[in-house]
Structures are given as C-alpha cells and as structure tokens.
Amino acid sequence: MTVSAAPAPSMHRRSTTLLGLALPLIILVSSAVLAWSWKDTLPDPVATHWGTDGVDGFGSLTGAIAVILVIGVLVTILLWAISFRTGKMSSTRRMVNGLNVWTAVLLSTILLGTLHAQKGLIDAADVGGVGGTIALGMALATVAGVLVAVVTPACAAAPATDRVPADASRLPLGDGERAVWFQRPRGGVGLAVGFLAAAGTGVAAIATSDWWMLLVTASLVALMAAMFSWVARVDEAGLHVRSSLGVPRTHIPLDEILQARATTVRCFREFGGWGWRIGRDGRVGVVLRSGDALEVTRTGGGVFVVTVDDAQTGAALLNTLADRARATHPVE
Fold first, then answer.
1. Going by C-beta distance under 8 Å and a sequence separation of 6 or more, which residues neighbour residue 185?
2. Whole-angstrom Cα distance, residue 89 to residue 303?
3. Do both 126 and 38 map to the same domain?
4. Which terminus of the chain is less hemmed in, N or C, by CB atoms within 10 Å?
5. Are 35 and 136 part of one and the same domain?
6. What does the DSSP 8-state code read for residue 100?
7. How far apart are CA 206 and CA 223, in angstroms?
8. CA distances (Å), origin 198, targets 66, 205, 217
9. pLDDT tens across 241-284, in order?
10. Of 209, 36, 49, nearest in space to 125 by CA
11. What is the pLDDT of residue 212?
12. Which residues have CB under 8 Å from 289's CB, separation 6+?
C-alpha cells in the first residue's frame, strides 16, 4: 500500500528531546545548583525525611540533592527513550513530555521547598511539616505538565493514497447511508486497584491528621477517572477515543487509516499494565483489560489499540468509511 510521505522521524524526535528530555533535565539541574548555593545557610545534617510526627530522617546536603537528581534523571531518560523510539503518535509524545516535566517540577519543588524551610536553622529537627510544600509541588507540576503537553507539536498530516485492502472487514452501507459506532470502555481490575489505593491514602490521612495526604487521594481518584473510563466513537470524521474527563484523547482521521481490525490483547504480556500504554512492539493503546480490542494501523507507522466490546463492528465501519472517504476525495 502506498501512502504519502510520513512525517520524518527527526520531527517527533526533536520535540521529544527538547520538551521531554532537555527541559526536565534543565529544571532538575537548576534546582540542584540553587539548593547547593544555600549550603552555608543550612544546618548540617539537613532534614531529609518526614514521618507522622515530623522529621525522622537526616542526611547531608549532597545526599539530599543526589537522591532527587538520580530519581529525576533516571525517570526522565527512561520515558524519553521510550517516546524517542515509539512516539510516532502525538498523543504519546504529549503524555511523555508532560509526565517528565511534571516529575521534574514536583521533585525540584520538594527539594527546594524543604531546604528553604531549613535556612537559618541550627538544628534541622526544628523545621516544620512538608504538607504545604508537597501541595505546592503538585499544583506547580500539574500546571507545567499540562502546558508542555499542550505545546507539544502534533504530527503533520499524512493522508493515504490507496484504498483499504480488499480483504479487510467492511460494514455494508448504501450510498449516502450514515452510521456511527459508539462504545464506553471501562476498567475492571485496574480500576479496583486504583480506588483501593486512593481509599488507603484517605484513611491514612484521617488517621494521622496529615491532611495534605488528601491531595494524593484526590490525585489518585482523578487519575483513575482519566485512565479507566473512556468513550470510543467511529463516525465520518474517523476514530475518536477520549477519557471521560476529556483528556487524554486522540483522534485518527479517516484519511490516515490504512486498515482497522478486531484483535485480542493481553494487558501485562503485551502492554505491561492498564491504562494508556505503550506496548513492547511500539503500539499505543488504551488497554483496560485483556481480550477483544480494536486495532487501527495508520499512516506514518503508528498503530493504536483500544480494548472494547464489539470491536469487529467498529473495525468494519472504519474500513468502510475510510474507503468511502478516499473514493469521494482521492489524494493525488
């Protein structure tokens, strides 16, 4: 099958490297340099860990900075490498870039916030709690992550020039007849695990009176709502898959669909878990359970998967609509 030129790999790799690698590393290194510049105003050792009764761990300033840098750099490089290799779809790049910046800002805020509170102290044990710092860090990280995801460039259009393969399944439609396919994929075991974790942090917050932990509870609930409740739709504009919260979301237009088919996926063996996932073979998917799934191969080499009931009908309708669109508006 012939398609128009796909976006050059350097295009998505450039944005991934700038926003998903360079920017978070700059944030992490800058925070480390600023923290080190405070060394003459900080107690020795500094407070490095807080429990339910306040500070319960101390260490050197070098160690405190190193822990943040090592965690942040390792996470950033790992996710960047995955996106660099498999980030042909803009939705993947947006998620990875946003997550890397979110992590860098959160870790940097926690490092600087906890150290700033110790400036001028003789004994680090006299420092207060860290609830406000963590809350500020989560807020700043969320804003920064969302902004980076928004400014991550989309893929250039790459319309297919040939018809959908003759052996692909189709849904019989008369001339001028319209059809829409609609499903609501929802999580099973993954959703239950997530809400148990959220409930656990909520109980812990109440039991210990560490009310800042309720922010973690709220974040987990929002994450579960975003990752385990989706809407999938096939219509004359293509395939739309979005979270019930509205984000994340993806849209594959008809003119970029090479072929759709029903398939079977295995969550952990192929995708390593639940939610918005990147598979070992580079496929991107909304994978909420093992079983039936709709798989779409698009121009540019991307493959998108969503676990849904009645995947066969969705795939057949997509193939039919894609063929009809190319017959009506052929690409020269």
1. 229, 230, 232, 286, 288, 306, 307, 308
2. 9
3. yes
4. C
5. yes
6. H
7. 21
8. 30, 11, 5
9. 988 777 778 888 888 888 999 999 988 888 888 887 888 777 88
10. 49
11. 65
12. 187, 188, 189, 190, 267, 274, 307
Chain center to CA of 166: 35
Distance from C-alpha of 135 to C-alpha of 110, rounded to nearest angstrom: 9
**CA distance to 70, 86, 236, 268, 303, per residue, from 279 (Å):** 26, 9, 28, 9, 10
How confident is the model at residue 2, as a pLDDT? 39
Contacts of 198 (CB under 8 A, 6+ apart): 217, 220, 221, 224
The answer on 14 and 120 residing in a single domain is yes
**pLDDT reported for residue 7:** 42
* Residue type for position 273: G
Range of the domain at 254: 181-188+228-328
Residues 6+ apart with CB under 8 A from 26: none
Residue type, 101: V
Cα angle 272-232-11, degrees, rounded to a multiple of 5: 65
133 and 42 together in one domain: yes
**Which single residue is written with the structure tokens 């040939």?**
162
CB 273 within 8 A of CB 189: no
Is 169 within a domain?
Answer: no
- pLDDT < 70 positions in the chain: 1-12, 52, 86-89, 155-159, 187-195, 198, 204-205, 208-213, 225, 327-332
On whether both 28 and 130 belong to a single domain, the answer is: yes
Residue 208 included in any domain: no
Q: What is the DSSP string of 189-215?
A: HHHHHHHHHHHHHHHHHHHHT-TTHHH
Q: CA-CA distance, 26 to 106, in Å (whole number)? A: 14
CA dist., res. 158 & res. 239, Å (int)? 16
Tokens of 249: 């979301």
Indicate which CATH number applies to the domain containing 293: 2.30.29.30
Side chain identity at 119, as an amino acid letter?
Answer: K
Amino acid identity of residue 198, one-letter, is A
Among 247, 208, 239, 253, CA closest to 313: 239
Closest CA to 162 of 322, 321, 3, 328: 3
Residue labelled with tokens 């439609």: 173
Query: Residues 6 or more apart from 274 whose CB is under 8 A from it?
Result: 187, 189, 190, 191, 227, 228, 267, 287, 288, 289
